[in-house]
Design brief:
315 residues; mainly alpha; two-stranded antiparallel sheet; globular; binds benzoyl coenzyme A
């Protein structure tokens, strides 16, 4: 088959809603796009453990501590599924880590903001995991099989995360004046970064058109952002919180909320490494990598010993 025949067959498979599997022929650019997105996604899960991990010892009750601990462990698991899915495309896990540690790889902008109060744990679960679900449910139908299958389990767990976050917010809003004020303050700080998570506006998104043609993405960044705003605003109102956007207004004609202009300068600053916690996050990942060296060495020696024992047994 010529390259053109292969490309036609590949696109036909996608148009028929069938999955592309690791051993199937695929254009280089499709492979590169997937590695870029999936590795960024994996890094986001791993870096995303840090802002919440910071609160595990300070959770206000045993029940809250258990739930937060489980959530952070889930995020480690999500990272591992996604790194494994990336490996099916021929990339090495150590190379992906190296790119994260030397600043070449991106991860979600949202994890470069500090977690200042317990209410931030509620807000992250409610808004950040809520935004993640909105973005990730369509990824369960992504054309690349291993990514789509990893997303099914991840989405189920994200749903628990979102509920535990909203429950924290609900309880704080029914508590003392100080607790409600803490919840409002967290919403004020996390609202705009959360809606930035969906990425640049469609007119500035470099990858959306091609990723939609390949059915990696099913919706544009702005479509998903709008869906998120539409479901989240009534949730805020239900617990008595105010979304910090004076331009937010339900539009009867469109059936959607209109909202204010996003500060894109802030978004790009954070994406390019100059957000409030970028340095702290990458330093923490580097330190974890260095501290884990003895574990990696021990695991390698153990694997070699087992392989040697097996080959003696075969003889
Ligand atoms: N932050 O052309 P575009 C979680 C970059 S973790 C940083 O629209 P695309 C959780 C983009 O990479 C969930 N960078 O790109 C974990 C591109 O740069 P490059 C994280 C961003 O890929 C722990 C450039 O901007 N979710 O749930 O078509 C605790 C142009 O953008 C961001 C995922 O990773 C951003 N926010 O669309 C709690 C989902 N946005 O690569 C929760 C998977 C854009 O050309 N990823 N950029 O240098 C996606 O769905 C897509 O990659 C995006 C961006 C929608 C994020």
């Amino acid at each position: 088959m010529t390259t053109i025949d292969l490309e036609n067959k590949f696109q036909q498979t996608i148009d028929n809603e069938e999955k592309i599997e690791p051993r199937d022929w695929m254009p280089d650019k499709y492979r590169k796009t997937l590695v870029r997105q999936m590795a960024q996604h994996a890094h986001s899960e791993i870096v995303g453990m840090l802002p919440e991990g910071n609160w595990i010892t300070r959770a206000p009750s045993l029940r809250r501590k258990v739930a937060l601990l489980a959530k952070v462990q889930d995020e480690a698991g999500h990272g591992l599924y996604l790194y494994s899915a990336c490996e099916t495309l021929g990339v090495k896990r150590d190379d992906m880590y190296a790119e994260l540690h030397d600043g070449r790889a991106k991860y979600s902008s949202i994890f470069n903001y500090p977690t200042l109060s317990w209410a931030d744990m509620g807000t992250i679960g409610w808004l950040v995991d809520g935004a993640a679900i909105m973005n990730q449910i369509p990824l369960c139908r992504c054309s690349y099989g291993p990514y789509a299958r990893a997303m099914v389990r991840i989405c189920k767990e994200e749903s628990f995360h979102q509920r535990q976050g909203y429950d924290i917010m609900n309880v704080l809003c029914k508590g003392s004046e100080e607790q409600k004020a803490m919840a409002q303050d967290a919403l004020n700080r996390w609202w705009w970064p959360s809606i930035m998570m969906f990425g640049p506006s469609d007119k500035d998104s470099t990858h959306t058109a091609q990723s939609m043609a390949w059915k990696i993405k099913r919706f544009t960044n702005d479509e998903l952002r709008q869906k998120f705003v539409d479901v989240t605003v009534p949730q805020a109102e239900f617990i008595g919180l105010t979304v910090p956007d004076p331009d937010l207004k339900f539009n009867n004609e469109t059936g959607h909320y209109d909202f204010g202009e996003i500060d894109w300068d802030e978004f790009w600053k954070v994406v390019k490494g100059y957000g409030p916690c970028n340095k702290e996050r990458v330093d923490a990942r580097r330190k974890a990598w260095d501290n884990g060296e003895w574990v990696r060495e021990a695991a390698e020696v153990y694997a070699e010993k087992r392989a040697a024992k097996k080959s003696i047994a075969v003889l």
